[in-house]
Amino acid sequence: MRNQSSPDSTPAPVAPGGAGNGGDKGRYGTLLAWFFVIVWGSGFLASKTGMLYAPPFTFLTLRYLFALACMVPLVLLSVRRWPGSMREVGHLCVAGLLMHAINLSGSHYSQYLGMSAGNTALILALQPLLTAVFAQWRMGERLNGVHWAGILMGLGGVALVVWPKLNLQAMAIGSLASVMISLLSITAGTLYQRVYCPQVDLRVAALIQFAACLLFVAPLAYLVEGFVIDWSWQLVLSVIFLVVFASILATNVFHIMMRRGQATRVTSLLFLTPVVAVLLEWVMFGVTPTWLMALGIAVTCAGVALVSMRSMRG
């Protein structure tokens, strides 16, 4: 994780398969993008595994406790630039609660209440559409017809990928409300941090946000769920993976990409995460994709390529 006081020192990432400004920068950006997509997509399987042994708020409490244990020594030993005011700390807390605590609580509880992974992935895939509308309306990003076509293709591709797993009967009011809260919170939090915390050191941001999230979910874990944990090595491994690779590394990669590229282009990468989840299920659990899912993967990748075209102007 890089100190962002000198943002120009960070290469400009591109979407998977895209071209950078040249040579090493382009390759570095592509590696960052693929790292984010693979970790974010595989995070679904890790969360699914972890919640077999602890309910959502309890599982998230374990995640944030371990995340703080990782971040406190790192920040104390390496960070020299702290937020300059309580106002900046407040902005970080708001962004963190939206992106982490509320988003993950909503998505986890939608599955905990019975919504299938396919339904959840499809609804959360609306984020790039919401981001595109807001970025054009309030942030000055101009999208042409090609970019809008790419966004719609990405959403259509995700729909094809998850269609075989859709279960409309599982869309109870509670689970649908949970996933909609998740969708709105991750969209708002991503844009909020970009606007109000553009230059904060990402290590400090992670520390403050994990602490705020722990204060949010821990009381809920005790009052709602009784903080019941069935300890197992699968639970421990899922927490370690989600904290180190998803909450710390992938989230910081995402913010680096947000700082160096348009919001719509970067969030279009989220269209690829359900695709990664499907492929990993195939490799790890032998769940063979159907021809419809294979078509959806191709359409999704084509849509992301269109949104990621360098002609987009911020």
What is shown here, in short?
The protein has helices spanning 23-50, 56-78, 86-112, 117-124, 127-138, 145-162, 173-196, 202-225, 233-260, 263-267, 273-285, 291-307.
General description of the model:
It is built from twelve helices and no strands. It has helices at residues 23-50, 56-78, 86-112, 117-124, 127-138, 145-162, 173-196, 202-225, 233-260, 263-267, 273-285, 291-307. Helix 1 crosses helix 11 and helix 3 crosses helix 8 (202-225). It is mostly helical. It is globular. The longest helix is centred in the N-terminal third of the chain and has 28 residues, at 23-50. Helix content is 72%, strand content 0%. It has a domain at 20-139 and 171-266.
Low-confidence stretches: 1-21, 310-314
* Number of distinct beta strands: 0
The average pLDDT is 79
**Percent strand:** under 5%
List the helices and strands and how they pair.
Layout (H helix, E strand, L loop, with lengths): L22 H28 L5 H23 L7 H27 L4 H8 L2 H12 L6 H18 L10 H24 L5 H24 L7 H28 L2 H5 L5 H13 L5 H17 L7
Keywords:
314 residues, mainly alpha, 0% strand, disordered N terminus, disordered C terminus
